[in-house]
Specification:
9% helix; 4 helices; Type 1 dockerin domain; 10-stranded parallel sheet; mainly beta; Pectate Lyase C-like; disordered N terminus
Length: 435
């Protein structure tokens, strides 16, 4: 038998220089680089840049450009612990990140906070993240307290306090919080501004867009503004709450002639209205909770019972159990949100922890392990693969996580942050259960 293919494969593997690297960034300790931009400059396609916990500011840690590279920039320990502080002022303008070199979905920004960006512009915006001619993936990021303002002599508008999505762009945002950003006079989109993505698809999933503002002369779209030429956009399991605008569209303002599809979402507490659309037939809303109501299949108009909207906690209150992100524990409320088990029956609910009612929740945490629990008795905590029976397959899954200490694990059957003998007892008690 010839061994030539194996030998050739070995030689190619041995001489190829294109191996992905893990590049570390830490501005306070030993690492490959002490600034994010320096790490990006050195990176090759496929590399992963891991940013250690800390507050990153100054040159190299703001106005960060992906340079068209297919790389991942991610935090080591989540956005609460990895902060890009742009430290910008009216006189000293800086953005957070740029995606302007045709980056695609495999260019990923994951798990950072971007704050204190400030830009004064003629006819653009996007203080936190500026996307133009690119389609990156932005995951698990917090974009907060950023501002875009218009130069007094400008004769056009200011676009996107937090995020500007420009020509030919169709990014993916997942599990992001976009809060307390603003645009000034003649502003469009305190949170996000969509300019142009014709024949493309922008996608927002499990995002919170809250407390943003488009205040000042002729300003609109406190949370989101869709311009006339913005393309087909999908919003799935998002929460748009407590955004403000002067002219209209406190939550969403759309003058677009392309469809916007909103599903399993909550649009509540925005002012002056939840959704303003020049053509309401272009806003397709279903299985969503909209204050004041909105025509569409499965929609409701009921107080979603946020845990603490004043402090930007938009988990849903639940008598069966609500995730408290501060204490990292499950707590029980005296009230039960009507948005629990109210999403589309065709949506994937299986990431929600039991008791889950076998139906996805509305809002940003629906379809995730942080989904508020259901009073329904459907299913079984030990049915880890959600196939309506507890058997050897579930046991193998359970054993794989034995003695893990981690929150929000399905195998942690008593939900106390550790998989141990108590969980095994619960599992054994449900052995060979079948629905």
């Amino acid at each position: 038998m010839s061994r030539r293919p194996a030998i050739i494969a070995f030689v190619v593997f041995a001489i190829s220089p294109c191996f992905a690297r893990i590049i570390t960034v830490d501005d306070n300790g030993p690492a490959d680089f002490n600034s994010i931009q320096a790490a990006i400059n050195d990176a090759n396609n496929g590399d992963i840049i891991t940013v250690q916990p800390g507050i990153y500011t100054g040159d190299g840690n703001r106005d960060i450009d992906f340079l068209g590279k297919v790389i991942t920039v991610k935090s080591e320990n989540g956005p609460e612990n990895c902060i890009i502080d742009c430290d910008a002022t009216y006189e000293d303008n800086h953005r957070g990140f740029y995606f302007v070199h045709n980056e695609g979905r495999d260019s990923v920004l994951d798990g950072l906070t971007i704050t204190n960006a400030y830009i004064v512009v003629m006819c653009e915006g996007g203080a936190g993240i500026y996307i133009d001619g690119a389609s990156p993936t932005i995951n698990n990021c917090i974009i907060t307290a950023n501002m875009a303002e218009l130069l007094p002599e400008s004769l056009c508008y200011c676009y996107g306090g937090a995020i500007y999505i420009g020509d030919g762009s169709y990014p993916l945002f997942t599990n992001c919080t976009i809060s307390y950003n603003s645009v000034g006079n003649w502003g469009r989109g305190g949170g996000i501004y969509f300019y142009y993505s014709a024949a493309a698809r922008a996608y927002l999933k499990n995002c919170v867009i809250s407390g943003n503002a488009a205040l000042g002369i002729d300003s609109a779209g406190g949370g989101i503004y869709f311009d006339l030429y913005s393309g087909f956009t999908i919003m799935f399991n998002c929460t748009i709450a407590d955004n403000l605008a002067t002219q209209g569209g406190g939550g969403v303002y759309s003058c677009s002639n392309a469809l916007k599809v909103i599903t399993n979402s909550i649009i509540w507490g925005n002012s002056p209205e939840q959704i303003y659309a020049v053509d309401k037939t272009k806003i397709i809303v279903s299985y969503s909770d909209v204050s004041g109501g909105w025509s569409g299949t499965g929609n409701i108009n009921a107080d979603p019972c946020f845990a603490d909207a004043a402090n930007n906690d938009h988990h849903l209150k639940s008598q069966a159990g609500r995730w408290d992100a501060n204490s990292k524990t499950w707590v029980e409320d005296q009230s039960q949100s009507p948005a629990i088990d109210a999403g589309s029956p065709s949506s994937d609910w299986t990431a929600e922890l039991w008791p889950h009612g076998k139906r996805i929740n509305m809002g940003a945490y629906g379809g995730t392990p942080q989904a508020s629990m259901s009073l329904s008795e459907a299913g079984n905590a030990a049915d880890l693969n959600n196939n309506s029976q507890v058997n050897y397959i579930d046991l193998m899954t359970f054993v794989d996580k034995w003695l893990c200490r981690q929150v929000l694990l399905p195998e942690d059957l008593d939900r106390n942050g550790a998989v141990n003998f108590i969980d095994f007892a619960i599992f054994a008690n449900n052995w060979f259960w079948e629905e």
